[in-house]
Design brief:
With 162 residues, the chain is mostly beta strands. It is 9% helix and 57% strand.
């Protein structure tokens, strides 16, 4: 009996001392979100999430669906007309829980119909409630039009360290 109690105590201490990264649950993250955005010259030299102050500042808002459920998306970023993009993304679930990420990507030149295509990565940096302790990376592909709308496709994984 003493040996059994000692083994149970050891097992309990092992679980208690296990790093939270080992206890994280990883989930696939796929989604599609459509946004409306406004862009302007970055005259105030604004930057987001520790990134560079690029020539243009953009704010986008949208909604869509993902493997985590319906999400709204808010994005603040700076970008060059063609080239790098950097910013902050917040996804919000229907119940108000948020999932935060940094946004890094590259945007190509407009095509003959004034569409631009971009690719990049979201790096999850945290969240609230059910998304607390979020980490992981998601790739994105974006299509942006000259009439200030865009769409994103996301694919990757996210872990939660509750």
């Amino acid at each position: 009996m003493t040996r059994l109690l000692g083994s149970l105590a050891f097992a309990a201490m092992s679980v208690a001392l296990t790093p939270t990264s080992v206890l994280a649950q990883e989930y696939p993250f796929q989604g599609s979100i459509t946004v409306a955005f406004a862009a302007a010259p970055n005259t105030d030299n604004v930057s987001y999430c520790g990134g560079p102050a690029l020539p243009y500042v953009v704010e986008a808002h949208g909604v869509g669906t993902s493997t985590l459920g319906f999400l709204s998306m808010t994005l603040q970023k700076t970008l060059a007309a063609v080239g790098p993009m950097h910013g902050c993304v917040t996804f919000t679930a229907l119940n108000g829980d948020t999932l935060s990420a940094t946004y890094d990507g590259t945007e190509g030149a407009p095509d003959a119909f004034n569409f631009q295509f971009g690719t990049g990565t979201l790096t999850f940096t945290g969240g609230t409630s059910q998304f607390r302790g979020a980490s992981g990376k998601v790739s994105f592909k974006g299509t942006f039009s000259g009439v200030e709308t865009g769409s994103y496709l996301f694919e990757g994984s996210v872990s939660f360290h509750n």
